[in-house]
Specification:
10 strands; 234 residues; four-stranded antiparallel sheet; six-stranded mixed sheet; alpha/beta; 10 helices
């Protein structure tokens, strides 16, 4: 479904990614692990068209989307939920959600999608008229994911969805991820909580200094001693 082949990326003279290849298949959750600064978010931003790549290729559903630009990538069905809960705090929860459907022409279909999101996140429906900035951190993360779902994506990319949340809220967010996946949504998951990420994923990649250091089935990575020592604290 999604395939990155030998992509490179830099910020000025600083190399960010070097020869990175990965794949996300139909119906998969694939996780991308690594320390801060390893290149995880840069990888997502390259896919999203936010960072240009001088070499390598990105294909989605068999179509080349290399350096296609953010609006084109979203129109193709790839939606990124960025790190840091980037909401519009002075707008209502519902208006934040509706912004996610800005590319859809069919208003009735968008309204049906909104009701589906409310069914998935009843807390958001309860707070539909509140300013989004009044939501708790966990609720804001729900809002981010709900807004992404409003775009009717074919693939969702989640960047550190557990960042800054309490352990209880982290568990809730991962239950949401499993629910979305159960509806057939492929997911590329960037996450520092390696244990949780591997538990919900079928395949994983580990980035180190902009390069893929390890990759394999999630169960295999959980048994790898180097992965355990570096990322699982075992």
């Amino acid at each position: 479904m999604l395939r990155l082949a030998k992509i490179h990326a830099s910020y000025g003279s600083v190399r960010a990614l070097d020869d990175v290849s990965l794949e996300v298949g139909e119906g998969q959750i694939v996780c991308l692990l690594g320390a801060n600064g390893a290149g995880k978010t840069t990888t997502l931003n390259c896919i999203s068209g936010l960072v240009s790549i001088p070499s390598g290729s990105i294909t989605f559903d068999g179509e080349d989307i290399t350096n296609a630009g953010a609006e084109t990538v979203v129109a193709k069905g790839i939606v990124q939920v960025p790190e840091g809960r980037e909401i519009f705090p002075t707008m209502s929860v519902e208006d934040n959600l509706i912004l996610g459907a800005w590319l859809q022409k069919d208003r009735r279909a968008a309204r049906q999608r909104l009701e589906h999101v409310y069914d998935m996140f009843p807390r958001l429906k309860e707070r539909a008229r509140q300013s989004a900035g009044t939501l708790s951190g966990g609720e804001q993360q729900m809002l981010m994911i709900g807004r992404a779902l409003m775009a009717r994506p074919k693939l969702m990319m989640l960047d550190e969805p557990s960042l800054g949340l309490s352990p209880l809220l982290v568990q809730q967010v991962f239950e949401i991820i499993k629910t979305i996946h159960a509806e057939g949504m492929p997911i590329l998951l960037v996450e520092q909580n390696a244990r949780l990420a591997l538990n919900v994923s079928s395949y994983g990649y580990v980035l180190e200094n902009g390069e893929i250091a390890f990759h394999g089935p999630a169960e295999t990575l959980k048994q790898d001693q180097k992965i355990n020592e570096a990322y699982l604290g075992v």
